Amino acid sequence: MGNDDISPNYVPTIAAIHAGLPKDLQNPQLGIICGSGLSGLVEDLRDTVIIPYGTIPGFSNSTVPGHKSALAFGRLGSGNGVPVVAMLGRFHPYEGHSMSSVVFPVRVMAQLGVKDLIITNAAGSLNPSIPVGTIVIIHDHIALPNLTGMNPLLGPQRSPNHLRFLPLSDAYSFELRRLAFLAANKLNLDDSALAEGTYAWVSGPTYETPAEGRFLRNAGADVVGMSTIPEVLAGREEGLNVMVMSLVTNFVVIPDQYRSIRAEVKAELAGQRVEAPEVEVVSHADVLTIGKEKAEVMKGLVGQIVELRQLNV
Ligand SMILES: O=P(O)(O)O[C@@H]1C[C@H](O)[C@@H](CO)O1
Ligand SMILES: Nc1nc2[nH]cnc2c(=O)[nH]1
After folding, report:
1. What is the model's pLDDT at position 270?
2. Which residue, among 221, 169, 174, 177, has the nearest Cα to 197 in the 3D structure?
């Protein structure tokens, strides 16, 4: 799955977006991508204008429950505030969207004038010390698809301004991550509310087998999810400052040991019938529930980061 659309024509897209907006919202400074169940992040926007994806040339619709399909424009922060554009719902490769469609909105954000991009997602924890409900500020990633021929930046160099060989050692903005922790402090959040960690990107749509979970944990990942990294890559290629907040919605199921069927059959043959084990499974419904529960905290953090950014702290 390479990048099939090297030179998208932004003109009709930007024209359609601008046509729906007052002048003062046409050049947003901050972009936000709302992950599964996290569209409530933008409830605090003022002067909000919603533009459905269906009316924007080049945009698809998200098919995943918990993802709306619209851009929200508005202002965030005190005083006049900062003009913001938020994606209420994203596109995942597992839905059948091409990699270029997945990252197209990020490229459009850059065309609109966005400088900082805050990406959110729901993710499973691989790290026993990062429990459900924690918000993980991502400082690195492991992208197995990138290592195996599914890098979203595959294809001819986009333009002389787009780096052919994009470094990723500085992918996650130090400045924005610093603001996230300062914001948590301002909001009096407990230390345990926010963690730092490494995100593993997998294609999905299946959740991990125990062996896959163990493999990713042993590889050094703290959380795992099915999105975000294509957006990070496109954002960095477009020159944006990028920050990622992963909300831990579940533990990846990694039992310490497997129950041996051989031992159980032996017990059965000796006259002791053993019940089939109840295996814990992850569900998208649970993912959405945690998203709802933590929406306020996520929203507070984003608002406070914008506040601090405005104050040039
Ligand atoms: O869009 P995000 O990454 O927040 O959604 C996560 C990953 C899958 O799309 C889905 C699985 O429950 O939630
Ligand atoms: N791959 C993956 N994505 C998730 N999104 C939310 N939880 C999970 C998970 O456990 N695994």
Report:
1. 93
2. 221
Query: Which residue's CA lies nearest to atom 9 of ligand 1?
Result: 226
Is 74 among the domain residues? Answer: yes
What residues make up the domain containing 126? 11-310
Nearest CA to ligand 1 atom 12: 284
Q: If the chain, 313 residues long, is cut into consecutive pieces of 10 residues, what is the mean pLDDT of each piece?
A: 60 94 96 86 90 94 85 93 94 94 96 97 97 97 92 93 95 97 96 97 95 96 97 98 97 88 90 84 91 90 93 75
The count of structural domains within the chain is 1
- The rounded Å distance from CA 23 to ligand 1 centre is 34
Residue 41: its pLDDT value, please? Answer: 77
Which DSSP helix (H) or strand (E) runs through 52?
Answer: strand 46-52
| Residue among 68, 118, 120, 121 to mutate when testing ligand 1 (max atoms within 8 A of CB) | 121
In a domain, 301, yes or no: yes
Ligand 1 within 6 A of CB of 240: no
The answer to the question of residue 221 being in a domain is yes
Is residue 2 included in any domain, yes or no? no
**Ligand 1 geometric centre to CA of 305 (Å):** 23
DSSP single-letter state for residue 77: S
H or E, element range at 12 = helix 11-19
CATH code of residue 109: 3.40.50.1580
